[in-house]
Amino acid sequence: MTPNKMLSLSSLIETHNKKSHIMQSLLDISLSADSLKGKDGESCTVLHDAIGQLRPDQMRRWAIPEAIAELNEIGKLNEYSVNLIMEKAESLMDHDGAMDDAMEVLQACSFQDIAGQRLAKVTELLETLEERFHSLVHETGVRDSHEAMGEEELEIERRRKEQILHGPQLTGDGVSQDEIDALLGA
Amino acid sequence: MAIDMNMPILVVDDYKTMIRIIRNLLKQLGFNNVDEASDGTEAFAKMQANKYGLVISDWNMEPMTGYELLQKVRANSDLTRTPFIMVTAESKTENVIAAKKAGVNNYIVKPFNAATLRSKISAVFGA
Predict the structure, then answer these.
(1) Residue of A8, B8, B113, B122 with fewest CB within 10 Å of its CB?
(2) Are residues A63 and A132 in the same domain?
């Protein structure tokens, strides 16, 4: 790889890190790959490998959809919990002396509106990113590099499997308390 | 069998909010002797130093998970009979089966309420 080409890739990564313009960086990488086609075999290979290490196919097939599903679930849980809190706060308002506290509880519930808007914003960004990864895979034909998984990442993955750590299940994905009771015979 | 309402209960969770909720639920049920730990390692150390009548533990914690804590407790001759309830958002069938094999007494999926906690504690003590 020539120093100029290396500088070009470094500046892309710098842009990515400093400004968090992930999608733009990916687009730039994709465009650079196109412009390098047929020019410098070594540079193309390095760039090809760099894209592979982003594991774009895994990103669009699994990582991003899962992140979107998690965000949607957070939104649903927030909504459910806030409705419950507000319902109880409203009934407390009927009691003497509890009006002020109940009002504060109701006011604090306004976080759900702001949080919901922020979640929607991030979800939209992820959906766009998912489309870009799809284009990147389609246009460049790059395959995910499994060498990209470092020791630390492998260790985290191994521990997740060993300790059966899935995190909270999405709605309809896990088992219900009744099913758990049946499994335990409790 | 009557439940000893004064038995020391150890609540293990890495979220302070969850510990606070479980403490309040236990208080509502009449249990006031409640201790806490923020992960399996701290819980196991506390269990070796103090005798608890019941452990209520989350699953997903670091550095020691609730699952590891359960395995360590069941492998320890002094602690092996300690009643252990898993309270977790991990609700895959494989989690429940793994916990059962490891010797869990009951399993509560989050979110839950005081009635569920009461019924599971009663079930553990055959009350």
Answers:
(1) B113
(2) yes
CA distance A13 to chain B (A): 32
Domain carrying residue B70: 13-91+101-112
Q: Best interface-test mutation with A: which of B24, B94, B109 has the largest number of A CBs within 10 A?
A: B109
Q: φ, ψ for residue B109 (rounded to 5)?
A: -95, 135
B107 shares contact with chain A (CB less than 8 Å): yes
Between chains, do B92 and A166 touch, taking CB under 8 Å as contact?
yes
**Is A168 a member of any domain?**
no
Indicate whether B60 belongs to any domain.
yes
Q: Which residues of A16-53 are buried (b: 16+ CB within 10 A; e: fewer)?
A: beeeeebeebbebbbebbeebeeeeeebbebbbebbbe
Task: Give the count of alpha carbons within 13 A of B52, CB side only.
Answer: 28
Nearest to A12 by CA among A64, A51, A59, A58: A51
Q: Which of A169, A173, A184 sits opposite B107 (nearest CB)?
A: A184
Question: What's B42's domain CATH number?
Answer: 3.40.50.2300
B21 touches chain A (CB under 8 A): no
- Considering the domain architecture, whether residues A10 and A80 belong to the same structural domain is answered as no
**Structural domain that includes position A117:** 56-141
The total domain count for chain B is: 1
pLDDT (tens digit, 9 = 90+) per residue, B42-72?
999 999 999 999 999 999 999 999 999 999 9
pLDDT of residue A3: 38
Could you report the per-residue pLDDT of B100-109, keeping only the tens digit for each? Answer: 999 999 999 9
Q: Which residue is closest to B121 within chain A, CA to CA?
A: A186
* pTM of the predicted structure, to 2 decimals: 0.69
> Could you tell me if residue B24 is inside a domain?
yes
pLDDT at A28 over 90: no
8 A C-beta contact, residue A102 and residue A89: yes
Residue A134 resides in a domain: yes
